[in-house]
Amino acid sequence: MPLMSRKGILAIAAVIDVALNSDTRPVSAKALASRHGLPPRHLEPVLQALVHEGILRGVRGPRGGYELGRKTEKITANEILRAAGTVDDSPGSHIPGSRLVGDVVLPALAQAERAFAAALSTIHLDELVKRAENHAERGHTPAVHGLDS
């Protein structure tokens, strides 16, 4: 079972992509979606959540798109995942309210999530951008795998 949701992984990839490609002008949602092999409608709610949290900034107009809302060293993977977590993956999904779930399962998962969030808080966007740039320098194109389902 993956620890991060599909939307969380997509959000991190999108923010790295914007950091790498928004030097001269904002990155359009269409360009982002195309590079990650997704229809724009899958990406737009994630981008809007990132804007709402100040991670990205939306630029309106014919040459608009998205750029970073603050410096890469001020953005953590945990913040990106929290923003993506505000996007509902499946409308109507709900967690059962049994005693076992409330008294045992949810507290255990909350503890694991706190540990995971603490670890993610040490990963800054500037580090991820450097990794992506090094990857590209070696002739590889950064790609997001397994997100087109």
In terms of topology, how is this protein built?
Layout (H helix, E strand, L loop, with lengths): L5 H16 L7 H7 L4 H13 L3 E4 L5 E4 L8 H8 L14 H22 L4 H13 L12
Antiparallel strand pairs: 1-2
Helix pairs in contact: 1-3, 1-4, 1-6, 2-3
Approximately how much beta-strand content do the residues carry? 5-15%
Shape annotation: globular
Largest sheet: 2 strands, antiparallel
DSSP helix count? Answer: 6
What is the string of SSEs from the N terminus onward? HHHEEHHH
Tell me which oligomeric state these chains represent. Answer: single chain
Distance between the termini: 16 Å
* pLDDT < 50 stretches: 144-149
* Overall mean confidence score, pLDDT: 82
Q: What value does the Rg take, in angstroms?
A: 17 Å
Strand order of the largest sheet: 1-2
Helix content: 40-55%
* Total beta strands: 2
Structural class: mainly alpha
Molecular structure report:
This protein is mainly alpha-helical. 53% of the residues lie in helices and 5% in strands. The chain contains six helices and two strands, in the order αααββααα. It has a two-stranded antiparallel ribbon.
Characteristic terms for this protein:
single chain, 149 residues, mainly alpha
Brief summary:
With 149 residues, the protein is mostly helical. Helix content is 53%, strand content 5%.
